[in-house]
Amino acid sequence: MIHEERIQPLNGHEPVDGDYVLYWMQASHRAEHNDALDYAIDRANELSVPVVCGFGLTDDYPQANVRHYAFMLEGLAETARTLADRGVRLVVRHGSPPQVACELAGAAAMVVCDRGYLRHQEAWRQRVAELDRRVVQVETDAVVPVEVLSDHEEYAARTLRPKHRKLWDEYLRLNNSPPLAKRDSLAIDLGGLDMGDPDARLAELDVDRDVPRSVQYRGGLAEARRRLGDFVAQRLKDYDALRSDPSLDIESGMSPYLHFGQISPIEVAKTVAADARHGRDNIDSYLEELLIRRELAFNVVRFNADYDRYICLPDWARATLKKHRDDPREHVYTKAQLEAADTHDPYWNAAMREMVLTGKMHNYMRMYWGKKVLEWTTVPQTAYRWLLELNNRYFIDGRDPASYGNVAWIFGKHDRPWRERDVFGTVRYMSAGGLERKFDIDAYVRQIDQLDSER
Fold it and tell me: What pTM, to 2 d.p., does this model score?
């Protein structure tokens, strides 16, 4: 049931005599609908050994803080229980992820890992691939494997969309009969942290604690499925028409769970598309975001080495922003003022407070939020850097391919030139007046005020 295109040997070695197959879980934090785990179980059954799942818990994941760690640990605690039901022991060790993987691989016949796309994630896997036993990577968080979808950086969603839609039927398949481990690893003693109390593990970590846990989001597959079920039952029927209205909360809320691999994007897509009574327009509109836009971001990170830098922008965007760099700005703010939601714009302030409180922001406001930072900062490159820093600090789904794609879009990536104006040049502009014309934006502000008052 696993597409061969998802499977990539990272070295030329064969399996060796070992006590188990190691599944190094680092990106896909789930025990269900996980092709990397299923592949590891298949190989272990062939070798007549059990599977051990290993995870490296590091204090210094780039730009992460207690908000991200709390969400992740809640999910890992649930995953540990579900893995045990499948006869697989989860061993969480405190340390550098590749170092933990290499340590656990010492007694392993081979290593299977999931895939990461960011620069440091690829470097981790390259280090583990230096082991003297077989190391295989299985792509399990992209619906269509990135290199199957395209062999180059795509210009925009419109160039990726026809390629993706040709492949939907082939890759949107769930394995509802996952392999069973013929031998369990539950009695294997490899030490590790007790994941029964994620709060205790969180207290032990030396991480940035200035950003508190989200007031709205809790990690784990069960919570992801609860939110997804509620979305399909209550809001999907209005998604196409009303998803842009920040006062109506029509979104699914899946991005934090997808970021940590706590739910499969294929499961999300299949759940949304399961009942045509929700309306084809609504289903297609959601799948556009989940499949096309999300995997367009994967494409950028895979094929553009500068995905997190201003230089990744198209030539026309950098040229027009350079041309208008010295245009007068009516308002200019420091990063500290922005972080404190201390601007003249009540709509922007509400969006910033939503992000600080919840770790998420309505998608339409996320675009507006970014455009205004570009407008209120004297140097576009500085605005770019500040947006990424704020994005990665407060959003639960920060530090994700989608984060880098979304911020780049603010500055013209995956877009086209528009009518020229001050400051923005021909980069797309958004205004407070546009919010007022389209939505009851004051209702959104009141909702955030209420949320703030309840914390």
Answer: 0.97
Q: Are 370 and 407 in contact (CB under 8 A)?
A: yes
Measured on CA atoms in the order 367, 368, 372, 373, is the torsion positive or negative? negative
All structural domains of the chain: 1-141 (3.40.50.620), 142-174+221-303 (1.25.40.80), 310-454 (1.10.579.10)
Q: Which residue has the tokens 């170092």?
A: 99
- pLDDT computed for residue 220 by the predictor: 98
d(CA 119, CA 131): 20
Angle at 406 between CA 79 and CA 232, to 5 degrees: 50
Annotate 12-57 with three-state secondary structure: CCCCCCCCEEEEECCCCCCCCCCHHHHHHHHHHHHHCCCEEEEEEE
Residue 381: strand pairing partners: none
Closest to 354 measured CA to CA, from 251, 208, 227, 232: 251
Q: What residues form DSSP beta bridges with 53?
A: 23, 90
Per-residue pLDDT tens digits for 2-41: 999 999 999 999 999 999 999 999 999 999 999 999 999 9
pLDDT digits (tens, 9 = 90+) for 93-112: 999 999 999 999 999 999 99
189, amino acid identity: D
pLDDT digits 0-9 by tens, 269-311? 999 999 888 999 999 999 999 999 999 999 999 999 999 999 9
